[in-house]
């Protein structure tokens, strides 16, 4: 069993949404003691608050909270009698702390040399990576569990289906495909970042082609080519990957709002629950 503390650290690092479920008060006979915790995500649960119908109801409530886009807290009371079908007969107060997703969606197109060293770095950052290529043999045998592999004959279609505000990195082996991906992203007009690997010459040619397709200069300027931080030079795959990763970190850090505390729960009610014997 994965302990709740281990999973919280991993989920926070990845920027994934989760709910911390904590028993903060008990009365009578209960399956677990005050302070027992579990973590609930959209797909998994970690640790336990005692099992049975109580845990089933708590997981269902947690997943309702996961539908929200903001941090929140709520307190629920559960009598462990006939209504929950548990023989304990006691009473449990449960605090739900919802931590909304903070990870930015990031599409990475191409599974070449740069992408292969970049993906493990990105997997440690609070971004949700979708790694796209049409060539099965290009993907390595091991892909970080938090990275979604997308093998498709229609990479451009992934751009059209991406969430608004997504970042995208165009790192393919094919200049024409790079252009099609870029043009499609610019037509959408709502991508958070469009980074294209390449030289200054490639950038100039892409800008000329886009201008011929009637893109205005303000739209063309949304393409960053060459992608990566200008003050991190180097052409080795790892050097380029670190430069790109640095740019991604700067982007999402700049977009993060000022730290805001979760919505306040009714602390007087929580205090009363904690005083229950």
From TrEMBL:
Domain XdhC Rossmann, residue spans? 106-248
Question: What does UniProt give as the signal peptide span?
Answer: none
What the entry lists under InterPro entries is as follows:
MoCofactor_Util/Proc, Xanthine_DH_XdhC, XdhC_CoxI, XdhC_Rossmann_dom
Q: Which residues form the XdhC- CoxI domain?
A: 12-75
Q: Which Pfam families match?
A: XdhC_C, XdhC_CoxI
- Report what the protein is called: Xanthine dehydrogenase accessory protein XdhC
Task: Record the organism.
Answer: Marinomonas ostreistagni
